[in-house]
Amino acid sequence: MPQKMITIPDFSLSPRIDKTGIEERADRITKRSIKKETKVNGLKLVLNMIDLTTLEGKDTEGKVKQMCYKAAHLMDTYPELPTVAAVCVYPSMVAIAKKMVEGTGINVASVATAFPSGQSALKVKLADTRYAVSEGADEVDMVISRGKFLEGEYNFVFDEIAQVKEACGNARLKVILETGELITFDKVRRASDIAMYAGADFIKTSTGKIAPAATLPVTLVMLEAIRDFYYKTGKMIGMKPAGGISKSKLALHYLVMVNEILGEEWMNNHWFRFGASSLANDVLMQLMKEKTGVYQGKDYFAID
Amino acid sequence: MAKRNNTLKLKFDNARKLAPAPESRSSATIDARYNLFIDGKFTPPASKKYFATTNPATDEKLSEVADANAADVDKAVKAARNAYNKYWKKMPGKERGKYIYRIARMVQERARELAVVETLDGGKPIRESRDFDVPTAANHFFYYAGWADKLPYAFPDRKPTPLGVAAQIIPWNFPLLMASWKIAPALATGNTVVLKPAETTPLTALLLAKIIQEADLPPGVVNIITGAGATGAAMVNHPDVNKIAFTGSTDVGKIIQRAIAGTGKKATLELGGKAANIIFDDAPIDQAVEGVVNGIFFNQGHVCCAGSRLYVQESVMKEVMRKLKDRLETLIVGDPMDKNTDIGAINSKQQYDQINKYIKIGLNEGAEMFQSSCSLPKKGLFIPPTVFTNVAQSSRITQEEIFGPVLTVQTFRTDDEVIEKANNSPYGLSSGVWTDKGSKIFNLTTKLRSGVVWANTFNKFDPTSPFGGYKESGYGREGGLHGLAPYVSLEKFEE
Question: Which superfamily does CATH assign the domain made up of A35-291 to?
Fold first, then answer.
């Protein structure tokens, strides 16, 4: 059986999305009531899907080291908790993070390509990517050129992603669409298609620097794009909503959505991630509540 | 290496395996026995007879209700006539409006109790009674409360006057909601009411009677009596009734139509349906598929305007069917009281047999059947979501109203073809159009012979929007400004 050729579609013909319908479906997802063992299992899975993130101008070696320790030791007094999936840092912090998480199974993800705006020359973006990978990044989170996309220069956006993918080597590539700057669901769908056909391993909603960041409706649009791409090509693509997800209940709604749109093969951290910095502690708080029956104050959970 | 396309299949078994999340029954108290609500009081029936009402999900008996005979109907109509002459027709619209607002607020305040009882008595999922039936019922009272003192604006240059006593007979699929659709406009226009809920689902109407009692409406303005077909016939044939409002089957609608011929009684009949839901190739397919699910599997398909005939443009048939099957695999069928249940219990044994009869007919006609692989509860009346392909206009399952979770799917090639097929039905209650193109929507809305045409959505109900049918789906409109007209006679102002 010869390998199926993936033909590149005309992205201006990407399926149209009905906003009202998307919002209603997303709202119906939130009506699922997640209780008891389903809740506990879901919460542990959420922890295991987190890309624990620090992306600040004021990031230092000390800050990154402490966050990396927390990534592997979410709550040592709670038996058999998973670790997070990855830590996500700027390229300059990759080597430090890599050393800190060695042997834990936690990946190091690095943003690149002139994150968060992407307003730089391609050669700079490629150099940025190569630098992150050479420092040891297992995963690269790139941003698309939203300006070019909005100008209708879809080939430019496509080629850029394809070249960054090449520069990644073995590192998995997450492509950030920055949906808060694309505004309409039609455009989110089109950008998702471009990213997947250009070689993305993951598509990701947001940098966390623009509001609105991830929402359930926008994630639904992207999950449906992943499903269509899977049926067309047989290739699985991962999904990462990022920014604005800080509560357990909301995170569980995301899991219900993945489970109902893509099914159980996506229900692990190889195919689904949360980009979040404060979600982990809310999940821990809920897990302790399920275990002990009472809520504990936030000072009983270490911030990093 | 990419897998071959035709072997690709997403797995959804786990999406249905959620820990139980039952709604508590504690918010609702159901009396062991209910009497007739006549003249502001709960009174035992002259018939001295009662019948049981059960939970279709468990066969458990919930309560027993009075079986009103002709003498009881006469008592209720007399109470309504007396209240009409003594209080209601003389009361200024502004004052009537206050009472209706009060009912609306009390329905909201007791929303949880009403939702729980609706689900226990009828079998519909608690998610629907909580999020749709009860809030929409309250909205109808709020909306028509607002019209009570503004009737001259509804009918410019005319003097709207009430008709008198309205006999209202409602079905079992949306018991509380249908009661509010009927009672609210009648009260707003100054009529008094005798209402009979369906014999399998009387409880929420009786709770509404308690609310009306507590709201301190003048006695006899609203009377709620229970019983089966004979009670309904006595209401229709009572000589002192001025107006019949009926929602139910086309067969009974025809009987009513014959019974009132020549009597001068006015009527609105909201009867059966076999709605066409049309997906064009330029539609947002995922949202259209969701609309198909909402169209036919909402309330177990016990919806007169259910989108039971799906028409898909041939070029997108494969994609639509794959997405529809994937979506059906994620639907949870089971205990209606569980907050995660999507499809609850079939309302009665009679309806259960009726649906299964049609499934058998479909199979005998050579149609290809798909049912979701979900498991069903061992006890109670449940049918999995069912889709038939390989059917034609000439198949009985595409012609006759099944009133259950059964969808037929046909393909079409051109706009003209689908318009012709959609209209090729004795019914004409509702239809749906899915396309990204606005001009196509307007082309179809002008040509589809149905009272409601939904565009890029389905089964949306709003108090401000009129609802009603063509042909065997009945006549008259409920809801909106149009819903006032069947309850008034319009006289010209004298110059």
Answer: Aldolase class I (3.20.20.70)
